[in-house]
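Batch manifest line 247
LIGAND: NAI
JOB: complex structure
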Amino acid sequence: MNRGKVAMVTGAAQGIGRAISQRWLEQGGSLLAVDVQAQALQELQALWPEQVACAVLDVTADDAPAQAMALARSRFGRLDALINNAGIGRPKAMHLTDDAELDRFLDVNLRSVFRFSREALGLLEPGACVVHVASTFGLMGNPGASAYAATKAALIGLTRQMAVDYGPKGLRINAVAPGLIRTPLIEDRLEQAAFRRLMVDTIPFPRMGRPEDVAGAVAFLCSDDASFINGHVLVIDGGWSATNWIG
Ligand code: NAI
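JOB STATUS: finished
ARTIFACT:
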């Protein structure tokens, strides 16, 4: 399905980004995998040696977008999908968030996405797409999530803005907004009763989200089946943000 197509996934080494990468590769596409975790990227490449190129980069580095796009160009000669997935979590309430922490959230979760997207515009042809990995926290208020939620809401604004500016050129720009997805990002917080009460007991579905749930949604948004979907935010949360359920 993706044969001959190339995706760039940031944060490809683990969790949601790894699942998105794997789905793309299983569908026959090639992948430019971006992450700071060299060993995990090498393990991914060992599984699909023909299809994967690795860029061990910190997405916040000034030259990271240019380096990643140069590698996509030299190795594959094209880019069909940019998946801006790399992100950090564990936010605090505003009064507990210092400037350094605020800047880190803005840098990783927002500024890098803006800069990777801008750089990709030079490579993306009509028919290509961008998917930002936002969050349900960007759509609704949650306790103690200030800087994180602000960056994810900004990604939703950026999605709509890019859709209007670049949709007319034949690009599609969408976002996914996952709810709780079981990854290393949240694993240890599952032991906190308050976190479980807020995030797990309130999912009107018998299980938590899995990285594969997000990978499936991203695969759909990148596919021809979504060829008229532009500027959309696809929520993947088992109904959590649409309801007031408590189990
Ligand atoms: P994770 O922590 O398991 O994986 C994140 C990946 O991004 C890691 O491989 C990490 O090395 C990489 N990364 C982080 N900062 C980087 C940087 N500066 N440069 C290069 N790579 C970097 O997290 P997870 O859960 O897979 O999250 C992925 C995305 O999904 C994030 O944007 C997160 O905000 C979002 N998300 C996650 C949810 C969840 O419940 N797990 C819910 C909603 C959104």
